[in-house]
Structure formats: structure tokens, C-alpha cells
Amino acid sequence: MKKILAQCGVCALAIIIVATRTPNRSSVAFAAGLSEQLRVQTPAPGTSFHDCSTGCPEMVVVPPGRFTMGAPAGEETREHLPDQVRGRSVPQHGITIRYTLAVAKFDVTRSEYAQFVVETGRPDPDSCLAVSPAADFIATSGNWRHAPGFPQTGKDPVVCVSWDDAQAYVAWLSAKTGHVYRLLTEAEWEYAARAGTTTARYGSDNPAELCRYTNVGDLDYSEQHPGDSDSTVNRACRDGYAFTSPVGRFPPNQFGLYDMLGDVLEWTADCWNANYNGAPTDGTAWPSGDCGRRVVRGASWDAGLSVSRSAMRRGVPTSTRITSVGFRVARTL
Q: In this structure, are residues 131 and 302 in contact, taking their beta carbons and an 8 Å threshold?
């Protein structure tokens, strides 16, 4: 990073010198060459990379752009969203992201999180909310490493991690790589999840087809949780998983990002606000509101169709650890 900054500083100085001289063919060519050098330092959209050889998440370059954030009129009614959680994803508003963003291709996995714990010595608290067969949340003594209530591989997304745990992880990753890693903002998350789509889901809105695109509450889930009375659990198909699935098992969205709308919910940087009145419009995080709770986005392996939408949002206390919430990292390029 220091090398790049130093190069950019030299380039900027050279451009100033060229600009103050009478233009000639050689100076114009020199300036053009510097401009090209600066341009190629930012990878092209869709490019994937790692910032270290071992343990760093694979990142995908997401281009700047503009989109409409929030649920369009009629979507919450059509999707049978419960009355008590309606009105949180309105009003719709335009977001302009003027910078290039790198977003993790996958949710942080158990193996990646384990390396962070080994290198930092972060303790494993024995507390995590789990989903019972009746679909109730029950307190357990499990944690991300053991006993989340179901088997996981090292490639499954890490669960039973709080917002505070996620913040500690990105601080470690930043120190390890020399780049500033962070959680996505809520606006960045929806921009990355929609990837140019305006439908309720980036894969398919047809329940019979949805299992091809994502891991949410389906027939496999409902057989393990027979007491779940949510009428919007997708009983039209099977995705092959009753709990979490290894990352990358379903097709990516149009930005090349996997599991943006399924497997686990994802912590974001924003403080919780009950709706979008007064929300930022430039892609930055909302730093005011109820900051003891943070916004989680996406959907999870136990989620019904009504909440498995690109516009759906929730506010969760920062200390909460639960078997349906993980996180994904980002950094500005």
C-alpha cells in the first residue's frame, strides 16, 4: 500500500509539472502514460484476487454504479411479509457509489475464521442461539468452533459470531495485509446483492426454481424442523441442505458473488434505523440511530420466502451470536 501511495504521489507531481509546461508531443504522451499507469493499478470489475497467500478471503472487484435501494411498492404484500416487520425497507431511494469496491466472493468460512483465532488468541465464548425443531431460538453453550447444533465443514460459513467478533476479524485482516478491510455498508451490500437486478431475488422469484440458486428454508429444512409454522417456508423444492452449506455450492450473482441471498445472514456496518428516512445516498454507512444494534442483510438456511429478498433488513444487537448469522468482508480500492 505504501508503495502504491508513493507511486501515486510521484505521478500526481509529474502530472502537475507537465500541466504547467507548454504542451508538446512528448509531454502529452508522458501524461497519457501516467494516466494509464494509474488506471491499471485498480483491477477491472470481475477480477478476483487474494491479498495474502494463506487465509485471506478471495475478493471480487465490483464496479461503481447507481441503483434504487429498498422494496418497491407492493413487494412486501405480494411476498406475505408479516405485518410487524413491514415498512423497514422504505422509502425507496437512489444510491450512487462512485468508488470501486472489492467484496469477498464468499462469506468468511470456518477455516478462515479459525486462522484468525489461532493468530490472535481470541477466546471462544460458549454461547450461541440455535434453532430448535420447532423453529424457536434457544440459548446453547455452543460456539463457532463446536456444537452449533449441526455439522459443518471448514468450507461452511462461520456462524455463532457477533458483530463485535466480525469487527475484530477485519481489524486482524487489515493488519495482516496492510489494506483496510471492513464490513460492507448496508447500501453496498444491497448494491452487491442485486448486481443490476430489480426483482425481489437475483436468482429467481419462482419458488420451484429457487433451490437451484440459494440455500434457504425448503423441504430439507422443514423435515428437520417440523414445528416451523412459517407458511412461506419454500416447500416447493429441495436445495440439498437442511442447515448451512459449504460456500460456493450455488451459482453466483451477476457480480460473481456467491450466497448473497442464502446460507447465512450477514452483518453490515450500519447502525439500525427503522426505515430509510434520512439514510445516506452515497453508499456510506449510517453512523447514527440505534448503534447497539447493527443491520444484518441477506437470508439464511432457515429463512422463509417472505424474508429471503434483496430488500429485507433486520436490526440485531451487536453482541448476539446465532447459528444463522455470519459475515462477509470488503475494502475500497
A: yes
Sign of CA dihedral 211, 216, 220, 226: negative
Among candidates 133, 132, 152, 155, which has minimal Cα distance to 143?
152
**Amino acid at position 311, single letter:** A
Q: Which residue has the cell 447459528?
A: 323
Which whole-number Å values give the CA distances from 25 to 22, 32, 169, in the listed order?
A: 10, 11, 51
Q: At what angle do helices 2-20 and 25-40 cross, to 10 degrees?
A: 160
Cα separation, 126 vs 146, whole angstroms: 9
> How confident is the prediction along the chain (333 residues), in pLDDT tens digits per residue?
433 333 344 334 333 333 334 445 554 455 555 445 445 578 999 999 999 998 899 999 999 999 999 999 999 999 999 999 999 999 999 999 999 999 999 999 999 999 999 999 999 988 999 999 988 899 999 999 987 889 999 999 999 999 999 999 999 999 999 999 999 999 999 999 999 999 999 999 999 999 999 999 999 999 999 999 888 999 999 999 999 999 999 999 999 999 999 999 999 999 999 999 999 999 999 999 999 999 999 999 999 999 999 999 999 999 999 999 999 999 999
- Which residues contact residue 296 at a Cβ distance below 8 angstroms, ignoring those fewer than 6 apart? 265, 266, 267, 268, 313, 314, 315, 316, 325
Query: What's the rounded Cα separation, in Å, for the pair 12 and 181?
Result: 26
Contacts of residue 302, Cβ cutoff 8 Å, sequence gap at least 6: 131, 135, 216, 217, 221, 225, 228, 324
